[in-house]
């Protein structure tokens, strides 16, 4: 799992510009599946055919995009004005290093004198070290994307910190599931979907789900925790196991799927916990409401400091998601 994350986190791919991470994921998953393709919006869809006569279609989804910054204007002094792509925690990202899709490095900084309470996109610039617009124009153009510089650092035990763990951790879970079923053919048809533009409105998963028309779906993403100092009470914690989503601000998961996941976790001794997130949302909601609807659930990886310059999670929780998803796909 750690090696997968090291490979995936090193590839910057902001929402709308997922081609680099898509190519990496395509190379990784192609040997594990029967069919691999890309739809019009850019979702990567890989299929592993099942062996049962009455097999179902099971969609397993993780988004491959990340939050970032879009260059909107070049100042006379060479600094770059920007617009946020996705939900940016400006205070947490301030003074962090960034890198563009062309490999240009810089620092994300607020204007001098702006208080943290007033942080917003129009109060920030990216400083790439130039002294004039002409110098910057040789390196950057309006419309270029930047992201926080990718990092990955092992911590105590099996915890890691870095970015963009949201949602390269989900992509690593999906690849691990594919590795399992490459060795042991599934009963049902499995559709591995690496979706685009989740961070800007869960856009990619909807057309992918509409085209597949799955009988069941599971979504893999990160979720907030209640074990951060000063956090509001929440049952999810790092190292608590796979988080079985019951509800977030955008979805109420299918009761049958939630109950099945809970039962399988107990039967197989898989570490798990319940997730009720009072904010946010994932591709789960888009899949649930696409076409004629779908029985959908989600397995989340509890993560601290989401959408900041550095996120933190446990590899054990991610691996518990893999084990539980494999059991689910075998049981349907």
Q: What is the topology?
A:
Layout: H1 2-9, H2 19-29, E1 35-38, E2 44-48, E3 57-63, E4 68-74, E5 80-85, H3 90-93, E6 96-100, E7 105-110, E8 124-127, H4 133-137, E9 145-148, E10 151-154, E11 159-163, H5 165-183, E12 189-195, H6 205-212, E13 216-223, E14 242-247, H7 255-267, E15 272-276, H8 283-288, E16 295-302, E17 311-314, H9 315-331
Parallel strand pairs: 3-12, 3-13, 13-16, 14-15
Antiparallel strand pairs: 1-2, 2-12, 4-5, 4-9, 5-8, 6-7, 6-9, 7-8, 10-11, 11-17, 14-16
Helix pairs in contact: 1-5, 5-9, 7-9
Care to describe what's here?
The chain has 332 residues and is of the alpha+beta class. 27% of the residues lie in helices and 29% in strands. The protein is built from nine helices and 17 strands. The chain has helices at residues 2-9, 19-29, 90-93, 133-137, 165-183, 205-212, 255-267, 283-288, 315-331, and strands at residues 35-38, 44-48, 57-63, 68-74, 80-85, 96-100, 105-110, 124-127, 145-148, 151-154, 159-163, 189-195, 216-223, 242-247, 272-276, 295-302, 311-314. The strands form three sheets. An eight-stranded mixed sheet has the order 1-2-12-3-13-16-14-15, with helices on both faces. Strands 4-5-8-7-6-9 form a six-stranded antiparallel β-barrel. Strands 10-11-17 form a three-stranded antiparallel sheet. Strand 14 (242-247), helix 7 (255-267) and strand 15 form a beta-alpha-beta unit. It is globular and about 65 Å long. The two termini are 26 Å apart.
């Amino acid at each position: 799992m750690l090696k997968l994350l090291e490979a995936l986190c090193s590839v910057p791919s902001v929402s709308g510009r997922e081609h680099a991470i898509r190519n990496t994921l395509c190379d990784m998953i192609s040997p594990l599946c029967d069919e691999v393709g890309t739809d019009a919006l850019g979702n990567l869809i890989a299929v592993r055919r099942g062996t049962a006569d009455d097999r179902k279609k099971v969609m397993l989804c993780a988004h491959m995009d990340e939050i970032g910054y879009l260059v909107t204007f070049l100042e006379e002094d060479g600094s770059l004005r920007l617009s946020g792509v996705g939900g940016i925690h400006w205070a947490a990202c301030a003074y962090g290093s960034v890198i563009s899709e062309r490999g240009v490095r810089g620092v994300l900084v607020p204007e001098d004198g702006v208080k943290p309470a007033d942080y917003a996109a129009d109060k920030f610039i990216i400083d790439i070290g130039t002294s004039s617009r002409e110098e910057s124009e040789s390196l950057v153009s309006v419309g270029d994307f930047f992201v926080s510089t990718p990092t990955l650092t092992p911590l105590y035990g099996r915890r890691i910190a870095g970015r963009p763990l949201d949602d390269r951790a989900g992509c690593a879970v999906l690849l691990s599931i594919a590795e399992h079923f490459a060795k042991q053919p599934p009963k049902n048809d499995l559709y591995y979907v690496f979706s685009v533009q989740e961070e800007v409105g869960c856009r990619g998963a909807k057309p992918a789900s509409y085209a597949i028309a799955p009988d069941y779906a599971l979504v893999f993403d990160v979720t907030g925790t209640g074990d951060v100092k000063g956090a509001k009470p929440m049952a999810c914690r790092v190292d608590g196991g796979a988080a079985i989503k019951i509800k977030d601000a955008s979805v109420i998961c299918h009761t049958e799927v939630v109950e099945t996941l809970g039962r399988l976790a107990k039967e197989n001794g898989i570490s798990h916990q319940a997730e009720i997130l009072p904010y946010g949302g994932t591709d789960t909601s888009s899949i649930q409401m696409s076409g004629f609807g779908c029985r959908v659930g989600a397995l989340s990886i509890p993560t601290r400091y989401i959408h900041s310059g550095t996120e933190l999670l446990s590899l054990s929780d991610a691996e518990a998601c893999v084990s539980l998803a494999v059991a689910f796909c075998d049981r349907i």
